[in-house]
Write a structure and sequence with these properties.
Layout: E1 4-11, H1 12-16, E2 18-21, H2 26-33, E3 42-49, E4 52-60, E5 73-76, H3 82-90, H4 92-104, E6 113-123, E7 128-134, H5 150-164, H6 173-188, E8 197-202, E9 213-218, E10 229-235, E11 241-248, H7 251-254, H8 259-276, H9 296-303, E12 307-312, H10 319-345, H11 350-353, H12 389-402, H13 411-421, E13 424-429, H14 435-445, E14 459-463, H15 472-475, E15 477-478, E16 484-485, H16 490-498, E17 504-509, H17 516-519, H18 521-526, E18 531-533, E19 536-538, H19 549-552, E20 561-567, H20 578-581, E21 585-589, H21 634-637, H22 643-661, H23 669-685, H24 690-702, E22 707-708, H25 711-725, H26 736-744, H27 752-768, E23 771-772
Parallel strand pairs: 3-7, 13-20, 13-21, 14-17, 17-20
Antiparallel strand pairs: 1-6, 2-5, 3-4, 4-5, 6-7, 8-9, 9-10, 10-11, 11-12, 15-16, 18-19, 22-23
């Protein structure tokens, strides 16, 4: 280690962008680096941290005329670059505290530090500096764990897996080790940052996998082995060799292609990556051998390997060498991530590559124009445009199922489409069917957790009280002394507005214990003022109380706030008015299966690529773009290529509306538009068949409006049944519901769920003399 240059307290700038060198250290640092910089000059340098080298730049800032007499020298690196990730991993205490303080300061622009952790900067040769990092106790430099952690993992694969395959998988110690202990060991090395990387072990489901895996995923790019690029340890089928690989998912390449074509695509991608990234001593050929007689996916996975190193049974290197291998592979991964980020952002994104001239005061550290809008604990999966909706929903379902809940049919897809079409959904049904649990688990599955359970506070459950009579219970009021008293959700709505990049979920539990149109009136009105402001969705103010502006500003409904109400329709609750029904998708929970099943063993082996998430799937962790509405105004927001679908849906709705009008149950433009939005979102994501999707919307937006005891209601039900079930028109006057039931049985109805619901409503009409949608 060379001469000491300066000490720097770890602050927000150090973790995200770089550091400004104090004026008194300018000459020293330039001399040690062997550089002479004029204003506007910049030079690539190397920074060493814990025997690893990272790329950075040193710049003599060329200020605008206003600051032309000032001189500032800064070390710069891009946000989320390898050095940035390494520093955040080492200084977890500072990173967490800075994030919390930033949230408490409501995002005000200023540098934050905790003055507990610091860096000493030393010279290390021409164009090279060394950072000696001191952790919270400031007693010794922060270093990675020196415990023997990786070697036991590799030896466990090589020495135990083949023998374990002769025994039952359920509860086996080897399966538990690979799924639980092995990921924990890799995290403990300090080489892999838990906040940014997901480590998952897989040994198959039901039966043992032929090729067990231990994978490392960058959460910003992928959390599944079916797509993207990642690091994965692969055990060969015979158990005698294990490969550390830089690899790629093959399922996406396989779709729509022959095996030969899929292999060609994967090899081209591998060659493209190896031509741009230094292999750092790893093999880059096609000689990886996972064994004979593999499944097609197994063979494709072998061909997808980009870089690798082979370890053999009885000849596993020592811990230091294994750590060096993983560290170098992580460097490859980070370099790949950086290139992908640069490719997406483009050459003109000056903030990302830190090439723009800064006009901040030299006395302050480096600041970017927009600080990351993330609350403590958030881990986000990629950019909005990268999310594959089908895959994300598959991950959500796996997470929910891992918690012991299974929702039948296309309920999760329907719930997603309803939220995306409009951020207000009602879940209705008898008590105990899992309505409230669905909201909580769905929120958890995409990264929103409750503050009460130690989470990030992006999910909040608010039990509705029977005595609520106006909006002050939710949004607050001013007392007799002129002080604003916040309501049950005021602070939650404020927090959502401060962090618009991530979704917030508000669950109003048993929302019809009080009259919804009374206590939720302000919300119901303001949600209809949604409009575009650039690429943001904005609304009118939700709190008009002047006393509230001191602490809460001019608060409107944030575009990332999703409100879900749960309701039990019985004698203790209030019915919904059409004002409420028009503004929400109402999803009914009516089917209950009380049969109990325990997980058993599968008859066939599950390919490890499919089961990479293991027994305990992680949350999918999505940005708000996953749920953010795409459409607000029907005629202006849809694309030209979507117009045919919109016209098709509107034509069908007009036919149904003509039937509804006979009993004064017809709908207006608002309902029409929201049904069209639902159908467009479904077509965009390719989730449901057209008829199934429109069936959902008839159930959720049209049928809840029907109730009464008049002859017009009876005629409406008959005609609507004919529309939903088919061309049946032979109703007799008595026991019409039995005729409907018999007609539905065994037939492929146009809108089956709606036809069955109409049959039920007709039964109530004939037996009770009155009918409604609700149970």
């Amino acid at each position: 280690m060379g001469d000491y240059i300066l000490k720097k307290i770890v602050d927000q700038s150090v973790l995200n962008a770089g550091m400004t060198i104090p004026v008194e250290n300018h000459q020293k640092i330039l001399e040690e680096l062997g550089l002479d910089l004029n204003k506007g000059d910049k030079q690539n340098i190397t920074i060493k941290i814990n025997n690893h080298e990272y790329a950075a730049k040193i710049t003599c800032v060329n200020y605008s005329e206003k600051y032309s007499k000032r001189t500032a020298i800064q070390i710069r690196y891009a946000e989320k670059s390898p050095i940035c990730q390494a520093l955040n991993s080492i200084f977890k205490y500072s990173a967490g505290n800075i994030a919390r303080r930033k949230a408490e300061d409501s995002g005000k622009k200023k540098q934050l530090s905790v003055e507990k952790e610091y860096i000493e900067v030393f010279s290390a040769g021409k164009n090279t500096l060394e950072f000696k990092c001191y952790s919270k106790d400031a007693a010794t430099p922060a270093v990675f764990s020196t415990d023997v952690l990786i070697k036991p993992v590799i030896e466990h694969f090589l020495n135990n897996y083949i023998k374990a395959k002769q025994e039952k998988l359920a509860g086996h110690a080897t399966g538990i080790y690979i799924r639980k202990d092995a990921p924990k060991a890799l995290y403990q090395t300090g080489l892999v940052d838990r906040e940014n990387y997901l480590i998952t072990g897989s040994v198959g489901q039901g039966n043992w996998a032929t090729i067990p895996w231990l994978g490392i995923f960058d959460r910003n790019f992928t959390t599944t082995a079916t797509q993207g690029v990642y690091i994965v340890y692969l055990l060969a089928a015979d158990g005698n060799s294990l490969y550390l690989t830089f690899n790629q998912g093959c399922t996406g390449n396989k779709k729509g292609h022959s095996k030969k074509e899929a292999i060609r695509i994967m090899r081209e991608k591998a060659k493209e990556i190896t031509s741009q990234i230094d292999g750092r001593g790893f093999a880059a050929d096609e000689e990886i051998d996972l064994g004979e007689g593999l499944t097609e996916l197994g063979e494709l996975y072998s061909k997808g390997t980009i870089f690798y190193r082979k370890y053999t049974k009885g000849n596993v290197p020592e811990e230091a060498e294994l750590r060096d291998d993983l560290a170098r592979m992580m460097e490859i991964y980070r370099e790949y991530e950086e290139k992908m980020s640069e490719k997406r952002k483009g050459a003109t994104d000056n903030k990302s590559d830190m090439e723009s001239d800064l006009e901040s005061d030299p006395a302050s550290d480096i600041e970017t124009d927009d600080e990351p809008d993330i609350i403590p604990g958030d881990e986000l999966w990629g950019d909005e445009e990268q999310v594959d909706t089908k895959e994300a929903i598959s991950g959500i379902k796996k997470y929910i199922e891992s918690k012991g809940f299974t929702y039948s049919g296309n309920l999760i897809e329907n719930f997603y489409l309803s939220l995306k079409s409009k951020p207000f959904v009602i879940l209705a049904g008898i008590s105990g069917t899992g309505k409230t649990r669905l909201v909580k688990l769905f929120a958890e599955a995409i990264g929103a957790t409750s503050a009460e359970s130690g989470g990030n506070g992006r999910y909040q459950l608010v039990p509705v009280r029977p005595d609520w009579s106006d909006s002050s219970d939710l949004f607050g009021h001013t007392n007799l002394r002129g002080e604003f008293i916040p309501g049950a959700i005021t602070d939650f709505v404020k927090a959502a507005g401060e962090h618009p990049k991530v979704p917030y979920f508000l669950c109003l539990d048993e929302m019809n214990l009080a009259r919804v149109e009374y206590y939720l009136s302000d919300f119901l009105s303001v949600i209809e003022t949604r409009r575009w402001s650039g690429d943001r969705i904005v609304t009118d103010q939700i709190i008009l109380d002047k006393a509230a502006e001191k602490d809460y500003g001019r608060m409107s409904l944030p575009e990332n706030l999703y409100v879900v109400g749960t309701v039990n329709m019985d004698e203790t609750t209030f019915p919904f008015s059409k004002k409420v029904l028009d503004r929400a998708n109402t999803i009914e929970f009516s089917h209950v299966n009380l049969e109990l099943e325990f997980d058993g063993e599968s008859d066939t082996e599950t390919d490890p690529e499919v089961d990479f998430m293991g027994d305990n799937p992680e949350p999918v962790l999505l940005r708000n773009g996953f749920l953010k509405a795409e459409y607000i105004v029907l005629k202006t927001d849809i694309k030209k290529e979507q117009q045919d679908l919109a016209i098709k849906v509107c034509t069908e709705l007009q036919t149904i509306n003509d039937i509804l009008q006979k009993a004064n149950a017809h709908v207006g433009y608002r309902v029409r538009d929201e049904i069209v939005f639902y159908m467009l979102n479904n077509a965009e994501a390719g989730l449901l068949d057209y008829r199934d999707a429109l069936d959902n919307e008839i159930m959720q937006k049209l049928l809840p409006r029907i109730q009464g005891s008049s002859a017009a209601v009876k005629e409406l039900l008959c005609r609507l049944f004919q529309k939903c079930a088919g061309d049946y028109s032979g109703f007799m006057q008595d026991s019409i519901w039995k005729q409907m039931e018999a007609y539905i049985d065994g037939r492929d109805c146009v809108y089956r769920n709606s036809a069955e619901k109409i049959c039920y409503m007709m039964r109530r009409y004939e037996e009770d003399g009155f009918t409604s949608y609700w149970l």
